[in-house]
Amino acid sequence: MTTSTTGTDTLTRDALAVLQPGFAGTTAPDWVRRRLSEGLASVALFGRNVATAEQVTALTAQLRAERDDLLVAIDEESGDVTRLEVRTGSSFPGNHALGAVDDTALTRGVARELGRRLAECGVNFNWAPSADVNANPDNPVIGVRSFGRDTDLVARHTAAYVEGLQSTGVAACTKHFPGHGDTSVDSHHAVPHIDLDATTLNERELQPFRAAIAAGTRAVMSAHIRVPVLDPDRPATLSRRILTGLLRGELGYQGLIVTDGMEMRAISGTYGLEHGVVLAIAAGADAICVGGGLCDEDTVQGLTDALVAAVRSGELPEERLADAAARVRALADWTAGMRRSPALEGDREPGIGLTAARRAVTVTRTGPAAPVAGPVYVATFHPAANIAVGDETPWGVGAELERLLPGTTTGSFTGADAGARALEAAAGRRVVAVVRDEHRHPWMRTALDTLLAAGPDTVVVEMGVPQSAPRGALHVATHGAARVCGTAAAEAVVAG
Which of 269, 271, 419, 420 is deepest in the core (most CB within 10 A)? Predict the structure, then answer.
């Protein structure tokens, strides 16, 4: 046998089958189409691959012309993390908003409508939902991506989301196992440590995953986090104790295990990309997510060769690679079968996203103030976006308030003097201050102090986790920054 992927030997095909690479462009590259004929079973779409729904549909049709049972994966949590609507903001609120409403039928319905839209575009594998319990308010990467901080609430909404999404033939991928909620480090940059005792881990972090497994989740995504009580040496993605011992053995999960993005610094910066991929498969992962940055043919070639070489050297058992590839193909078979099922027909709910966002809004009046009836100045205090969310997706209430209140103007501010600059730009007009996770950003808190001292009638819109006490003449909490959350917030501001 040869290590070149130009061959069609079983080992090479299995190595290709476990990869879920991304690629550049809005059409299918020649190298991706060629690799599909050689054994590649999955591809991943990111914001860079999306222009319109029609374009994504054409792209997935191009890819399926090479392999009909292809898994097309996407990171479409909705809310703050959207790929299908990366240019405009999501039509659906995220998990935290759904958790704030706490209506599992609504969560199931939102996930079902999202699944239908994905399926219509040819996407059949969604890296969602996040089942993380947002136990640490300083968490820089989960936040509104979590249904909340109550374990039982997170568990029941995780299950509802899985059921709704998979009813459309789109496989759910519950993440980030064994729970990324109690971290203060972003695994895109480093390896977070979660120093929990076994009881807390079992009763808090693992409960939503048990619920997802009971609901039939077709996939679970591992987290690049170190949990010393489970494995003091390796992060979950590379830990046989966690993936095989805990997830497969103790929790009885038999579906696909997929890694979080292997190019994230928690893995690539510590173990190296190729070696990390070998360790992940050996630990019990079945599919390798890679390409959130930019994946090319050389990367796929290198990872395939690394897996083949590891089998030949004895570092990776051939049976383990074959089992991983078989699980990928089994999921592909399930999605292909569901695509042909008449059970996917049903009533559409095109407005359910805005309905959910409106229900999630919480309005607090802290004192008497005149209604917002005329033009205002919208000052958006813009924190740095985490990599999962990205900074290309618009958010806020400015555009909607400009529509509802003609003459309204807007500005965006950040940094130590943000409040003073916003006050100067407002030039005496009433201010609507838009914040995101105020509790995590001292400069943002100071900016609000400045505005409220100068104008007690200032309206505050919180589009992150509403951890800080409400303040402002009117405080509107949206529990997320999706486009529909912005619409619902603007309506609440005008309604007073």
Answer: 419
pLDDT digits (tens, 9 = 90+) for 224-264: 999 999 999 999 999 999 999 999 999 999 999 999 999 88
Using the 8-state DSSP alphabet, how is residue 170 labeled?
P
- What value does the CA radius of gyration of the chain take, rounded to a whole number of Å? 23
SS3 187: coil
Distance CA(347)–CA(387), nearest Å, equals 36
Q: Which of 96, 157, 176, 188 is catalytic?
A: 188
Q: Decide: 219 and 255 in contact? Cβ < 8 Å.
A: yes
The arrangement of strands across the sheet holding 256-259 comes to 42-45, 71-74, 125-126, 171-177, 219-222, 256-259
Q: What is the mean pLDDT of residues 354-378?
A: 93
Q: Up-side HSE of residue 394: CA atoms within 13 Å toward CB?
A: 12
Is 188 catalytic? The answer is: yes
pTM of the model: 0.94
Which residue in 459, 443, 467 sits closest to 397, CA to CA? 459
Q: Are 102 and 153 a contacting pair, CB within 8 Å?
A: yes
Copy the structure tokens of residue 98.
């759904």
Nearest-angstrom CA–CA distance, 452 and 469? 14
pLDDT in tens, 25-36: 999 999 999 999
CA gap 247, 206 in Å, rounded: 10
154: tokens are 């997170």
Token pair in block for residue 220? 């679970």
Tell me phi and psi for residue 447, to 5 degrees: -60, -45
Phi/psi class of residue 46: alpha, beta or left (left: φ > 0; alpha: ψ in -120 to 50)?
A: beta
Q: Cβ(76)–Cβ(84) under 8 Å?
A: yes
Assigned token pair, 291: 């390409």
- Which residue from 177, 245, 176, 254 is spatially nearest to 218, judged by alpha carbons? 254
Bridge partners, residue 73, by sequence: 44, 125
20 in helix, strand or coil?
Answer: strand
Q: Are 266 and 188 in contact (CB under 8 A)?
A: yes
DSSP labels, 86-144? TTT--SS--HHHHHHHT-HHHHHHHHHHHHHHHHHTT--EE---B------TT-SSSGG
Beta bridge partners of 72: 43
At 321-341, the pLDDT tens digits run 999 999 999 999 999 999 876
CA distance 139 to 47: 24
SS3 for 261? Answer: coil
Phi, psi at residue 355, to the nearest 5°?
-60, -45
First to last CA, the chain: 72
* Residue among 343, 187, 325, 208 nearest 267 (CA): 187
E strands, 386-490, in order: 409-413, 431-435, 459-462, 474-477
Structural tokens at position 50: 């999306």
Question: Catalytic one among 186, 260, 286, 437?
Answer: 260
